[in-house]
Structure formats: C-alpha cells, structure tokens
Amino acid sequence: MKQISILGCGWLGLPLAKSLIAKGNTVKGSTTTTTKIPQLKEAGINPFVVEVTHDGVSGEIEALLENSEILIIDIPPKLRTNSGESFVKRIQNLLPFIQKEKVSKVIFISSTSVYDDAQSIITEATIANPNTESGKQLLQAEHLLSSHSHDFSTTIIRFGGLFGEDRHPVHYLSGRQNLENPNAPINLIHQVDCIGIIEKIIEEDFWNQTLNAVAPFHPTRKEYYTEKASALGLPLPQFASDDASSGKIIQSDKITTELQYTFQKPNL
Question: Which of 87, 147, 149 is nearest to 113 (CA)?
C-alpha cells in the first residue's frame, strides 16, 4: 500500500483515485472548489482545496503532499482560454512544496502536443519540437521537473487525445463542415488505459522515464470519425475534400515493450 497525492481530481484524476483506492492505496486529492469536497470524500479520497497559478500556490498544499511518496500532477495548461497564464510558472511555484514535503516520486501528465505535427512516425526517441504554445510550455515543464532528479524521480506520460465512455471527440465534430486534416491519423487513448498505465508505472517502479501513451490504432480522421458518427446515429462530419494533409503517428513502444503494459482498448 502506498500513499499517493493527486494534484487535480478532474476527468482523469477522480476515476484514477478511485481505482488506486480499490487496489489498497491511500489517496489524497485536490480540487480548486469547496463544492467538490463531498464528491471526493464519497469516493474515499482525503480531499484538499489547492490552486496552483502563475502567481503562486494557495490552499492546503502542504497537507496534500505531507507523507506522500508519490505525487501525480494532472492539471491542464489552460493556455487556449487564458493566454496570459504561464503553465511553466505554475510548475515552478509547485516545486518548493514538493521538495519541502520530501515527495520522492512524481508522475507528470503531459501531452503528445510536444511533438511537431509535421513529424511522421513518432517514438520516444523522437526529439520533441512543439509548434503550439501549450506544447512548448508542457515541454518546458517536463524539463523543469526532470532537472530536479536529485530531489525526486519523475516519469512523464505524453498522452494522446483523451476520451472515455462519457467523452468522445466525435460529439464535438458531428455535423461540422469543411473539417481540416481528413487524412491525418488519429492518436487517441481511452481513459481506462490512462489509468492502467499510471497504475502499472507505480506497481513496477518505472521511474525517470518519458513515455508516449497512445492506443495502437491509427485510421485517418475522416475514416474514424465518419464511422463513429454513423454508429452513434449522429450527423456525419464533413471533411474538406481538397485537403491533402497528413500527420504524425504516435507509437508507444516503451509502454508495450519495457513497461510491458497491454492496452485494454487497443482498437477504440
């Protein structure tokens, strides 16, 4: 049994916490609003109100991290909606608390957006070259955490597009016209595999690693979303027919070979 803290009990963090608790671990979890405290308590999580911004860290951060061996950082950059926010600064502000409370292991939830869309086949050996602000700041945050290896071990997970039973991107694309990148391959991962991979890292003590985490299933956007919309009875998305785009295929070699994780939802 381990004591684990999760910074950010949202769409992924909350079900992750429930799964970790079901396996016998003790979990502390954070939320930014007091209204969510009863929900976390009901799930068996020891809840704390914590907010990490580029101005500082407020709330019960010391209590969240106290006596925890592992910290899972699962807070979104939020750079699309607030261009004035610095995600790197948020991680910088968090670091002294990780060091003070002597957390020994960190899992950082990153994204495949750290790779350039112009790159074709992507493995963990591919040099990250982000072309979006979100990707650039995520990569800087990765480097910042990894540079403190003398204080704690960090494993970085670069997830593809996240979806689950209650959240699928086809609902956002359904019925839309002139969608770009029809020939670009999809790079998605199901919520159950996100949780499974995190738990496998903890079980196997797989630290100081950087992992791509994408299901081994890469039909084109047009093929995949048209088929999904049809199967769900949704209006079909319409892709730009004269767009000869292509895109990257993210391979998760280290997860399947070194971590020896088997995807539960390989075909999506």
Answer: 87
- 3-state class percentages of the chain: helix first, strand second, coil last, to nearest 5: 35, 25, 45
Supply the pTM of this predicted model: 0.95
- CA distances to 19, 127, 143, 191 from 229, in Å: 30, 35, 39, 20
- Do 28 and 5 form a contact (C-beta atoms < 8 A)? yes
Question: Tens digits of per-residue pLDDT, 197-254?
Answer: 999 999 999 999 999 999 999 999 999 999 999 999 999 999 987 666 678 999 999 9
Residue 99's Cβ-side half-sphere holds a number of Cα atoms within 13 Å equal to: 12
Backbone Cα Rg of the chain: 19
Q: How many CB atoms lie within 10 A of CB 160?
A: 20
Residue 11 contacts residue 74 (beta carbons within 8 Å): no
Residues 6+ apart with CB under 8 A from 240: 178, 179, 180, 182
Give the CA distances from residue 241 to residues 10, 32, 130, in Å, rounded to whole numbers and listed in that order.
37, 44, 27
